[in-house]
Design a protein that fits this description.
The chain has about 300 residues and is mainly α. The chain has helices at about 1-15, 25-40, 45-70, 75-85, 90-105, 105-115, 125-175, 185-210, 215-225, 230-245, 270-300, and strands at about 245-250, 250-255, 255-260, 260-265.
């Protein structure tokens, strides 16, 4: 039953997109902020970080388990939970305005738009920097917001996707290596790393299979270990190789230049490569759906 539910949730996302109002993750963000204000003070913060993570995630995961097991409508609840967790259409909705602005030569508008989807400083980015940042965002967020959600849904159904999506949201909110979150946010960061470990490598393999395979595999093997994130490294190195472009390189975060290694091989990306990245993600989703249906069909045989 998981395969049809996954396909239905993906189609629902393509038709409706993310809810414009009252998205559950917005409410969860308010809850997480309140919990952080209550627990992120005093000492020791490491233990409080794990406790805060548990209070934010586990009750809602248990609630998802309860509604997923409701007689008659549990399957519908699971489909809706997956629909709310994936963001395939939103990748295009965030990236396409940047493509159009670059195509029109409106660098200021493109710069403002890319600032909404990346955490780096974007004020000084030129056209190449904007295209690079957007392409990186599409590849990495495709892994986090689409494929990892599908993976954990396939493993544990509705509760699995809720657990993953909330954990990923807390990492985005608490997983910073700054004074405020260095100790408190360690649990959120480590748990997200754990939950993304297998999905990220499956995504890297999928990107390779759906693009320039040999180059993508070589970039993954040689460049991913140099990246500071254990999961973003394989995804972005393989994705850059699959597209035949060069990503990474120096970037400014909170006023400091981070000397990131180069990923991929080939020319710097342009606006057209953002489109290619979106197509790579869509082809990869199609491949996942085909494989999942084959596995489902074999299980029924």
């Amino acid at each position: 039953m998981m395969a049809p539910l996954m396909l239905a949730a993906i189609l629902l996302d393509q038709v409706l997109g993310e809810p414009r109002r009252w998205h559950p993750l917005v409410g969860f963000g308010w809850l997480a902020s309140a919990i952080e204000l209550r627990f992120n003070r005093g000492q020791p913060r490491r233990n409080k970080g794990l406790l805060a993570w548990s209070l934010a995630v586990l009750p809602l995961t248990f609630a998802a388990w309860l509604i997923s097991n409701l007689p008659g409508i549990g399957w519908l609840a699971e489909m809706i939970l997956l629909y709310l967790a994936i963001g395939l259409r939103s990748l295009s909705e965030h990236a396409m305005p940047i493509v159009r602005a670059l195509g029109a030569g409106n660098v200021d508008a493109a710069r403002e738009r890319v600032g909404r989807i990346v955490s780096r400083n974007t004020n000084a980015l030129d056209e190449t920097g904007i295209a690079r940042a957007t392409t990186e965002s599409v590849l990495e967020n495709g892994s986090d917001a689409v494929f990892a959600a599908l993976f954990w849904f396939a493993i544990f159904g509705g509760p699995g996707v809720v657990l993953y999506r909330l954990a990923n949201t807390l990492d985005a909110m608490w997983g910073y290596r700054n004074e405020r979150f260095l100790h408190f946010g360690w649990a959120a960061a480590k748990i997200d790393d754990f939950l993304n470990f297998i999905p990220a490598r499956l995504v890297a393999l999928t990107y390779a299979l759906c693009g320039k395979t040999r180059l993508a595999l070589a970039c993954w093997a040689q460049q991913a270990p140099l990246w500071d994130s254990p999961n973003a490294g394989p995804v972005m190195a393989a994705g850059a190789g699959a597209l035949g472009v060069s990503l990474g390189g120096p970037a400014s975060y909170e006023g400091e230049i981070h000397k990131r290694p180069l990923l991929g091989a080939g020319p710097a990306p342009g606006a057209v490569d953002i489109l290619h990245a979106l197509r790579l993600v869509r082809r990869s989703v199609t491949l996942w759906v085909i494989v999942i249906f084959l596995i489902w069909g074999l299980s029924l045989a």
